[in-house]
Amino acid sequence: MNVFDVDAIRRDFPILSRTQGDHPLVYLDSGNTSQKPQAVIDALSEHYSRHNANVARAMHLLGAEATEAYEGARSAVAGFIGAARPEEVVFTKNASEALNLAANTLGAGLQPGDEVVISVMEHHSNIVPWQLVCERTGATLRWFDVTDDGRLDLESAERDHLINERTKIVSLTWVSNVVGTRNPITEIAAKAHEVGANVVVDASQAVPHQATFVQSLGADLMAFTGHKMLGPTGIGVLWGRYDLLASLPPFLGGGEMIEVVEMGHSTYAAPPYRFEAGTPPIAQAVGLGAAVKYLEGVGMDAVEAHDHEITAYALDKLQAIDGLTILGPREAVERGSALSFNLDGVHPHDVMQVLDSRGVAIRGGHHCARPLHKRLGHQSSTRASSYLYTTTAEIDALADALVHTRNYFAPRFGG
């Protein structure tokens, strides 16, 4: 597609033509999971109807076709993120598993006195695995605080020597799933590498929305998930520098991750297979490969530009609503498309239910980021998250529904 045409893109997504009663579906929960284009749906159907078999094991035609499709998806993902080679791409079932894989392998050598650095804005999937590994090893968990506007407090971190000679691992989100902040990963990674630390990046909210070149990002390991980038559920990715992956121990034991098994000991396969025990998510990988092809056809620069335009428009519309408070950055600068907010005196779950009755799908809760909400002084929030198929008309519908909700619960505003 040479020109970004959101109406043409929307025609590729069957679900977007749905209605809820008298209301058209306004889907603003893409940060939770994205919708799927027909090309991805067709790829899954084609695989199951014509090529279904296990990979690597079966020597018949279907097995060869399934293996070719699975490894083709690996190559497609590697090209999409600028990996040096396909073997740097490990398939997991989601980003949470990828981050657990990182914590349990990279963190296996931690000792008392070592430090792991995360941040207050992390998704629980990038907090709990590091808590667990620190509890097991005796290492110390430390974290970046955030400023009142939801950005990493880099000044305090520098003053407190957060990253120092004891730091062994720094694991950060690239883009916050709550406040949308885009963090300066390359700058932080440079500081981490100066003291010999490895850098893990949760890119679940970044890779779907912007061009990604892992070799210049500064990460040593990077996790993301397929279902937020037009692909199926059940497929995630851990990218890693090949030399680092080759130095890490296995995470799970089973078929295909081994080289030789004896009763007394085993040797392990080279990456990525070392980390892909058992039957992998074959059809899901094929679907992710189709999603990558679709996004490349649109162009990630165009996706990012559209996201920026929609986010800026949404920020303006929502800030014009009396009684609405936005969490995090209020300008579309170094910011992703996740936009969280609260209506005065109205619980996010009530907001979510009323909006749903008008066909507007959003999310209410703490979005698996309770520490961030606590730091910002909110029990929870309502989140609208857009993507390449979102229109300004849908943002208008969101704003109108929020005014209706506010007035319903707070008549003083004119309801």
TrEMBL record:
A biological process from GO: cysteine metabolic process
EC number of the protein: 2.8.1.7
The keyword Acyltransferase appears for this protein: no
Signal peptide (residue range): none
Pfam families: Aminotran_5
Superkingdom of source: Bacteria
Cofactor names: pyridoxal 5'-phosphate
Family note: Belongs to the class-V pyridoxal-phosphate-dependent aminotransferase family. Csd subfamily.
Name of the protein in question: cysteine desulfurase
UniProt source species: Tessaracoccus rhinocerotis
